[in-house]
Amino acid sequence: MSRKTFREDLAQVKALGSFERLSNVGRGDDDGSISFTYTLPSSTQTIDIQASVDASKYPSDHTYLVYSTTDSIPEEVSSVLERSYSFSAGLSIQQFLRTISERIDAATMGNQESVDSSADYDGASSVDEMDLGDDDDGVSLVDDMDWEDDNDSVLSTVMDNQTAVEEMRSDLRRAKAAGFRVGYLGSLTGTVIVSLSCRIGKMGISQEAMQAWDVRSKDFLVLLIRYPKGYRRFDRIPESTYGKEELAIQMRIGLCDSYKPCLNSAVQAFVPDHIKDLAVSSAVADSVLRAVFIGKSIEDLLNSRLVSL
After folding, report:
1. Long-range pairs for 183-186 at CB < 8 Å and ≥24 separation?
2. What CATH architecture is 2-146?
3. pLDDT tens digit sequence for 142-167
4. FRET pair for 81, CA 20 to 30 Å: which of 5, 39, 96, 213?
5. Where in the chain do CATH 3.10.110 domains reside?
């Protein structure tokens, strides 16, 4: 029912089209994502934005990971997108779009006070009031909720999840700044697959090598990193998991026409060959991860050696 509700809400919002500076509202690259275009005030400049959502938890326990697919955007807009997790959890699609639009409006027009103090919408969880920015002015999760003494483990879990989400967003921003296309698939606070990719044509590979490896300049070389127990930085991965079959992280590499594969294809990449679900063949063709020359050898090296370096 959650995914159905998500799709119905998205269709309704798309039909209404009631946002002054938002256009092209619709389904994003994956099922469970939203795409839209924001037009800057007093300007013709547009910014393409996507928001990934765990649709299975919609409409109350979901979160939004918001990022721009436009290469160069104003710093004020980037700041709003980076902090969107702190004010968007639990919002309906319509509430989310209204909130993100109003906050970008306020930031680009220099009204930072409006950005910091805009009212929460009904239905938002307590996480909405958290300020995950660099300052300490926001309401903390600990102060906002009345925790009993026996709820220490719950508080610890929530704070661990918050830290993991912030670290992932920070790391993805750094990867993007280094020139990679980035994205994630799955749950922000559970099993998540991070996608890093680069177009073959930007890698300086000769035409002869591309022909030998059966790749095209327009293809994306994609690295998928799966975190079965939630995102964690390499320095926090227990040494006891190095080289073990039950890894804290797992990596796959392949080719894709898109900068990241669809969720179904990404999940299938981590399933053993003898039990793979053939349903992946029904996915959109340009979002399917394909095998790459010597990919298996590279995967073996990454999974057995990279984390321990």
Report:
1. 183/29, 183/52, 183/67, 183/259, 183/260, 184/52, 184/65, 185/30, 185/52, 185/260, 185/261, 185/263, 185/266, 185/267, 186/54, 186/263
2. Roll (3.10)
3. 333 333 344 444 334 444 667 888 88
4. 5
5. 2-146
